[in-house]
Amino acid sequence: MKEVFDGADAEHKPKGLKELAHPVNDVAYKLFRETYPEQHMHLQVALGAAQRTFDRTTRHNVQHALRCVVRTVLEDPRLTAERDEYLAAYLDQEVAEMHGWLRQDSVTAVSRGLNIGLAVGAAAGTVLLAAPILWGVPVLHLMGITLNCGNRWSLLGAFVAGGVGAFGAVLSVLVRLRLSVEQLACRQTVGQEKIVVPGRQLARSMRHEGVYRVLVGWILAVAVYFLLTGGIVPVFELPATAAEICPSPGHPGSAVKGTDFWGFWCAVGFVSGFNERWAFGILGRNSSTNPATTAATSRKTTGKPDI
């Protein structure tokens, strides 16, 4: 009987090595267990891990291989009370291959879990990007709230920066983990013996990690947007503001400024999500520090021009 956990079936009643290879000669199996206790223990551990793997194909392949190994050893005429080096080497090699399959299962769990987490996070970022643009103003009207032109541009700029920041976070994770998924799986170990965490737990933790990273990118982009538009942190000279875009008495407004507005905040949002260190640097900057003032102070102090 099998139960389902996190989309993968698991053995409800785990088998032992002897049950897996049934039917077996009890005398031969006892001889195998007593003559090669270390190899027997490793095979039993591999079987236990195989019954908790993330990938069904890996589970079936490892169990089938273990069944073949046990039957091969029990039928080998060199299985006696005296330890045979050939059989010991054969068992060691098979154990090493089993561990390789199980490590690969952990890599698969990490990769698939992270991909699902990033997809969910990207979908959430799309909703957070599209929903306010499509339905934000009508919903506010139903609540009796009226936004003028400047309010609409300011709020929409925040949501655009956040939505693009979410996609920047997705790309950042994909680029950094393109060649290091296996290393990430190997880091998910317990104790000094490098015991690999079961695949379903890895997949679940990576799903959470993927969603978390996307939401962090979204929040960072929005935070940077409000800090810069509010003039709290003077880092950039903004190419366009909502006041310059919207028409007012004596000022017709500018469509070109609107294009500059979208392009600039899409770029800032993407960089904030893609490079968290850059975004945190913006957030941690002293609001009273002006880059031009800092550069001038540095020249006066050191007597050296900027490079």
List the helices and strands and how they pair.
Blueprint (H helix, E strand, L loop, with lengths): L1 E4 L2 E4 L5 H4 L5 H10 L1 H14 L5 H20 L9 H58 L6 H29 L3 H7 L1 E2 L4 E2 L2 H31 L12 H4 L9 H20 L1 H8 L7 H12 L5
Antiparallel strand pairs: 1-2, 3-4
Helix pairs in contact: 2-3, 3-4, 3-5, 4-5, 5-6, 5-7, 5-8, 6-8, 6-10, 8-10, 8-11, 10-11
Description:
Strand 1 and strand 2 form a beta hairpin. The protein is rod-shaped, with a radius of gyration of 30 Å. Helix 4 (56-75) packs antiparallel against helix 5 (85-142). It is built from 12 helices and 4 strands; from the N terminus they run ββαααααααββααααα. The chain has 307 residues and is mainly alpha-helical. The protein has a two-stranded antiparallel sheet. A two-stranded antiparallel sheet has the order 3-4. The protein has helices at residues 17-20, 26-35, 37-50, 56-75, 85-142, 149-177, 181-187, 199-229, 242-245, 255-274, 276-283, 291-302, and strands at residues 2-5, 8-11, 189-190, 195-196. The longest helix is centred in the middle third of the chain and has 58 residues, at 85-142.
